[in-house]
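WP5 quarterly update. Target: BrxA/BrxB family bacilliredoxin. Source organism: Paenibacillus lutrae. Length: 144 aa.
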Amino acid sequence: MVMSFDSYMRDMVQPMREDLTRVGVKELLTPEQVTEALEQSKGTLLLVINSVCGCAAGQCRPGVAKALQNETTPDHLYTVFAGQEKEATAKAREYLAPYPPSSPSIALFKDGQLVHFIQRHQIEDRSADMIAGDLIDAFDKYCK
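Structure tokens (predicted):
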């Protein structure tokens, strides 16, 4: 039996996608979806740049899930998957200036303005609880 690379990768990353989608984060799969979500959403918006790396699995995704248990959370929850939906991820990164491309990473927007950003280097050496604490502080500051 021969399995295509694309099919294999979809199957391989599905559990990594579900780490976020099962807690209510919506996937943006196309550049058009990214543009619509980031330009038309009012209020606060969380954008997670997901990744297959170990720090995404051990710190980023669990940290986001824990933070979303907070009483105050963003109005909109989105994710793009770096290395999978490449065009959607590239489009999302246009909204993250002046920060360089970073995956995983976590961005919080308020009324279309980037107000808080956690880059990969701020994820890889911190625990999920520390990342959740950072996000909760940002949620409490910007999402009320």
